[in-house]
Amino acid sequence: MNDDAPSTPHQGTLRTADSLIQAGLVPPDQREALLRVARDYATAIPPAFSNLIEHPDDPIARQVIPDPRESTQQPHEDVDPIGDDALSPVPGVVHRYEDRALLKPLLICPLYCRFCFRREHVGPGGGLLSDEALEAAFQWFEAHPKIREVILTGGDPLMLSPRRMEKIISRLSAIPHIETIRLHTRVPVAAPERLTPALLDALESDCSVWVVLHANHARELGHDARLAVRSLLSRAIPVLSQSVLLRGVNDTAEALEDLFRAFIKARVKPYYLHHLDPAPGTAHFHVPVEEGRALLAHLRGRVTGLAWPTYVVDIPGGKGKVPLGPDYLLPQSEDKNPQRQVKAPNGTVHAFT
């Protein structure tokens, strides 16, 4: 597929087992198993994303096509793996760090990732925060002057209407202690047509507005996605990336290098590479931490520092994100010699003071 050519949608959003079968993405004999999966987890594959699928087992398809294995929960998996519910002081708000908090104005996404850590909550019926709940959230932010940054997530905040987005951005921008508004989104790769001039206008703010784009494979960053990113950059909105390390999607050095280079080509700064959160039915995507660290170490020196993300794990229970390395500083010798040693990307060891 030529990623420099605009996509030509050939169908509507795929939402049901039958539509997936008709599209040739799952075999008919999986229908009953997928109906069981659908009782718990939503499916949506919009045209811009389904057009990227070359075959039903490729890295794009694996992210979004439901799998019978999702019905099997492993003992270590949790319906709220990063502690959102326990850290929600009012509906729609999650407060994990002293200086920032999440605002989840809706629980709807343009597509539903099969590895999502909020998969128990998001879906077409997730709806919007009511006006009353949204006002209670704004009042909570007003009452907490240590909050400097609000992160709009959900759901996908760029699924909001321009009118509602403008209301949220304006209200947050009017709170004196809020300096930064960040939006986490899949829209530029999943539904780039949503980034209309009206929606971009709604993002105008005296606060510092940032967008964090979630993509996991280089093929997601084709012509239409890059145009969507460019539309954000044209409004002076910086764009960072977040990705999840996923078995069968990006778990090779070559796939990660291609992904990070594709971000840079699109003028997106790689920000986070996430270790998989243990949501129910996601074990088939798991990549051990040791393997992830080795993959990042393999790329050190092969890609520019501009393309280097921080590999992180979200500690279960809402204890926050921590970097996982890889490490290059070697343990200090017992004689407390002022010289320390580091390991270079090629594996050689060198001293410095």
UniProtKB/TrEMBL annotation:
Transmembrane segments: none annotated. The keyword Ribosomal protein does not apply. Residues 95-310 form the Radical SAM core domain. Residues 67-79 have a biased composition (Basic and acidic residues). Its cofactor is pyridoxal 5'-phosphate; [4Fe-4S] cluster. Residues 1-23, 50-85, 329-353 are annotated as: Disordered. Keywords: 4Fe-4S, Iron, Iron-sulfur, Isomerase, Metal-binding, Pyridoxal phosphate, S-adenosyl-L-methionine. Coiled coil: none annotated. Signal peptide: none annotated. InterPro entries: Aldolase_TIM, LAM_C_dom, Lys_aminomutase-rel, Lys_aminomutase/Glu_NH3_mut, rSAM, rSAM_sf. The keyword Cytoplasm does not apply. Belongs to the radical SAM superfamily. KamA family. This is Lysine 2,3-aminomutase.
